[in-house]
Design a protein that fits this description.
The protein is 30% helix and 24% strand. The longest helix is centred in the N-terminal third of the chain and has 16 residues, at 31-46. The protein has an eight-stranded mixed sheet with strand order 3-4-2-5-6-7-8-10. A two-stranded antiparallel sheet has the order 1-9. Helix 1 crosses helix 2. It contains six helices and ten strands; from the N terminus they run ααββββαβαβββαβαβ. The chain has a single domain (3-180), classed as Rossmann fold. With 191 residues, the protein is of the alpha/beta class.
Length: 191
Amino acid sequence: MNRRRFLGWAVAALLGGWSRPAALVAGPRTGREQEVKLAYLYNLARFTRWPGDDPPAGGTFRFGVWGDDPFGPLWNELIGRAVHGQPVEVVRVRTAQDARTCRVVFLAGTTVPSVGRMLEVLDGWSVLTVSDQPGFVDRGGMVGFVRRGEKIRFEVNLGRVRAAGLRISAEVLRLAVRVVGQEGAGRGSLP
């Protein structure tokens, strides 16, 4: 996929979700679905602020993947790009230390107990946790990809985001289908 097409997916993903053609409905992890999720990841990083905006280790903006990588060569679309003025780097997360050197960690293809352990390991660290596992934000994750009809959307656990010292832009929060842990609004969808 070329950069122009990737940016198109990114804009479409953030502005209104993504509609899957009927031919793609059968497979839960189609290539296009993964393109949309990766576009969400990239744009979530762009519209999130970290405490003090300290540069990550090595002066790069590090995305980590823990578990079975659903994106594979699609990560190449991010190489050469920057987030907050820092070049993107993608790493495989194998240990807690690996995860703590990342700004964003995607938890993929793993069991619920192991996701819970990784969330415990990252508790108190300014690492944006993202997954496509059902119920991820209700179990303490920060951003969860969900299907709403034929679209890929996302939910946000604002309480966990804030506890990690992160700030997601209000515009992105308005695009979420559900925001939990939001003071004054309780659990549920944004109006």
